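Batch job 17 of 40 flagged for manual review because the log was empty.
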Amino acid sequence: MSDILIAILRSGTPLIYVAMAGMLAQRAGIWNLGLEGLMIAGACAAAVGTAKSGSVAFGLGLAIVVCVLGSMLLWFVVEKLRAHPIIAGLGLTGLGLGGTDLAVQAIYGSQASVMAGRGLPRLGEAFGPFGVLSVLVISMPFVVLALWVIVRRTRFGLQLTACGEHPFAARSVGVAPARMRLIALMGGGVLCALGGAELALGTLQLFSINMTAGRGFMGFASVIFGGGHPIGSALAALFFSVVDALGIRAQLLFGDKVPRDLLLALPYLATVLGVWISGQLRGGVKAAATGGELRDY
C-alpha cells in the first residue's frame, strides 16, 4: 500500500500543480490550454539549468522565469492582440513542445535525454518509505489549501472571480480585469514551473522530449471536472493519478495478458470520462466553465 501511495503522490503532484494553474486562469476568465507547453518548458528549464549550473535552486528559478515569461506572452496575445484564448493557449503549447525540442538539440546537439545530475531535496530516511518524496510533494497540499483561502476567502479572490464571470461589473467598481488576468496567469506560470520541476527533478532527475505526455491537458480537464474549485480540481487531478498508478500496477500483475497500450491509456480514458461526467452533472460545458455548484462552498 505504501508503494501505491507513493506512486500516486509522485504522479499526482505535477498534475495538481498544473491543475491549480489552470484553476487560477479559469477564475480570471481564461481557458488556459497552454498548460502543457508551460509544464514541459518548466521541466526542460529545470533539468538543463540544474545540469549546467549544478544547482537545483538555479534550475528551479530558471523554470519559474521561463514559465512566467510564457504566461506573460499568453496574456499579451489574448489581452492586447485580442486573440482567442483557446487558440492562443494551443499555440503556447506548440511553442513549448517545439521550443524544448529545439533547445535540447541546440545545447546538446541531439534529442537525447538531459541528465540533471541531482534532484529536488527529499525528506530522508527519518520518514521511512515516504522519505523518497521531494519537498514539492510535501508542499503540495499546503499550496492547494493556500490557494483555496486566497480564492474563496480574500478580497483578491472575489475580485478575480468577478473578472472572470462579470468583467464589465468588475470594471465598473474599479477593478481592472486585464491586470487581474495577468496576475492569475503569472501565478499559474509559477505553479506550472513547480509541476514541471517535480516531473523532471522529483524522481527521474532527467528531461526527455515530450515527457509531459499530455499531463497539461489532464490538468486542464481536472479544472473542468473539479468545477473550477481549488480543492475539487486537486481531487480530480488526484483521481487521474490514482488511475495512472493502478494502470502501472496492472502491468506488473497481468503482464502480457492485457495489452500494454490499453493499460497506458487508462488515465486518458479516465480524463475523457471525467469531463463527460462533469458536463452531465452540471448541465453542460458552459455550467462547468463557471464552476457549477462547487463555487457555493
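Reviewer: the log was empty due to a logging misconfiguration, but the result itself is present. DSSP finds 13 helices and two strands in the chain. Unflagging and moving on to job 18.
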